[in-house]
Task: structure prediction
Amino acid sequence: MRDTGFEIALHNVGSGAFYREEIINGIEVFKEKIGYYPKIQVNHGDNTDNLYWGSKRFVNPLKFVYKIFHKEKFYEDEIGHPQFWGDINQ
Result:
């Protein structure tokens, strides 16, 4: 499919809670299988390692409203957290 022009995206490295080393390994496996690093990341709905998810995808006032109804539980951009991987996304 890649060779016929389809863009192949990464849909997280799996469904569930993954940690930095697992995510890095999954991205390397993607590169090994597809031939390049993913250019598009598609989040699962509730993975706690989702890239810039939850209220981070909104601006105020939507960000404020979102936080009223949803507990923040996404850690991909919290430096030092075991699920942090925002620094390797380019």
User: Anything to note?
Assistant: The mean pLDDT is 92.
